Amino acid sequence: MTILLAPIADKVLDDNGKLRPSWVEYFSQINRGDAGTTWNPTITGLTTVGTPTITGVYYQNSGFTDFAVKIVPGTNTSSTLGVTTITTPFSVAQDVAINVITGTSNAQGVVTASSRTIYLPTWALITSPITITGRVKN
Length: 138
What we know:
The protein is mainly β. It has one helix spanning about 20-35; strands spanning about 35-40, 45, 45-50, 55-60, 65-70, 75-80, 85, 95-100, 105-110, 115-120, 125, 130-135.
């Protein structure tokens, strides 16, 4: 993984309020240059019909980790609050809320620092892909 240093000696915006070229290049390289670290999350307590495809990726930068997990149901999946969990492969310094997008709705889960565990909210018989995203402090 390449860590890009921000051009902190240069102002972010010019006198007209536009990003200066050094910052445009910095943000462009962040978006293009890092594919993240993939992992195969194991989800405990997920009820499935059919075999789901579960993938994960995370990016570590400046003391934070951004992550995403995608669940593509075989037929459908269901989750129970307090039962359905994922253990992260990275450290977590403090508890934080995370987003779970299930089709056309959004719910929140929680990551607990003491166990590095993502607790997922309740959903039932979801047939569309589910995306779980969050940012934690390391």
